Amino acid sequence: MARKISIIGAGMTGATTAHWLAERELADLVLVDVVKGLPQGKSLDLLEAMPVIGKDVRVIGSNDYAATDGSDIVVITAGLPRKPGMSREDLLNTNADIVKKATEETLKRSPNAIYIILTNPLDTMCYVTMKVGGLPRERVIGQAGILDSARMRAFVALELGVSVENVACYVLGGHGDSMVPLTRHSNVAGVPLNEMLPADKLAAIVDRTRKGGGEIVALLKQGSAFYAPSAAIAQMAESIIKNKNLILPCSIYLQGEYGLKDIFFGVPAQLGSTGLVKVIEYKLNNEEKAMVEKSAVEVKESISALKL
Ligand code: TXD
Fold first, then answer.
1. Residue 216 belongs to what H/E stretch?
2. Pairwise CA distance, residues 38 & 68, whole Å
3. Nearest residue to 49 via CA among 27, 15, 22
4. Atom of ligand 1 at shortest distance to CA of 98?
5. Is 78 in the pocket of ligand 1 (CB under 6 A)?
6. Which residues pair with 173 in a beta bridge?
7. DSSP secondary structure letters along 24-79
8. Which atom of ligand 1 is the closest one to the Cα of 10?
């Protein structure tokens, strides 16, 4: 039987995730959204592209969670952007309600599903799914770090004129301005980044990475990044479906790793058929530890503002 991936939220990231996933021919796809016609229209359009790209993927769109029955993976991208007059805390609790409902409705139809969360504030929404679903941490994985690391990789590759494939960058921490780009552990074909780039260039790349989301929001004027975030989800899903055991920076519920407990936080995570297989720990120096702690405070504050 074909594997099945359901994507809740058929907006920019949800639909683009379906696109990248269809290209990889990993599983049949379901798009669910509250807007009438939107998931149906986008999925029909994508289905009609399959003969052109030669992939046998069934794509269904629905306003009803019944379509998600028996999913192997559920991706949650549903949420609202901040509206004028809305505080961050208001947005947090509005999106928490949406993610809560998406979790409850999908989990009862797919009791063994692995969850990949995208909705912001990311680390806190992962916490909502894990708590509401009563799920083990292995089955709730947030997407943020692949995107942040990919931005840094793209900027380094551009600067040096080398292939993106030769550039390995690692970004830890919460998905926010306090993310922690690990320049010491990043490298180009094995050569440490700080030997490949002068300090000022490297500092500029780190700064652009931290502000990467905002740079795109400012350009688009409406909405936020969607190609790169959804490509990242497809990579996570592939590692799970194919049991590839790729080590990818993901938001994971920590239980003592990096000295942190009871929060979702961006760390390198090995992903296989059961979801999280293992958290990989870097040896951090004092400066890096201080950045991690600062980032963790932000995530803790966000979780404590939750009204579940
Ligand atoms: O790296 C990351 N984690 C992020 C996070 C990168 C990019 C986007 N990030 C966040 O993902 C963003 O801040 C939002 O919270 C979500 C979704 O972003 P997207 O760009 O896809 O937003 P859209 O285009 O507005 O799509 C959201 C869809 C839209 O079609 C709504 O109708 C739908 O969500 N929606 C719902 N679907 C199902 N059920 C409910 N209740 C619902 N409410 C809204």
1. helix 212-220
2. 16
3. 22
4. 41
5. yes
6. 266
7. HT-SEEEEE-SSTTHHHHHHHHHHHHHHHHT----EEEESSGGGGTT-SEEEE---
8. 30
162-218 pLDDT, tens digit each: 999 999 999 999 887 788 999 999 999 999 999 999 999 999 999 999 999 999 999
Residue with tokens 């998406």: 102
| DSSP states along 74-135 | EEE----PPPTT--HHHHHHHHHHHHHHHHHHHHTT-TTPEEEE-PSSHHHHHHHHHHHHT-
From the CB of 12, is ligand 1 less than 6 Å away?
A: yes
Host H or E run for residue 295: helix 286-304
For 251-267, b where at least 16 C-beta lie within 10 A, e where not — what string? bbbbeebbebeebbbbb
Say how many Å lie between the CA of residue 282 and the centre of ligand 1. Answer: 32
Sheet arrangement for strand 246-255: 59-62, 28-32, 4-8, 73-76, 114-117, 140-142, 246-255, 261-272, 275-279
| 82 has a pLDDT exceeding 80 | no
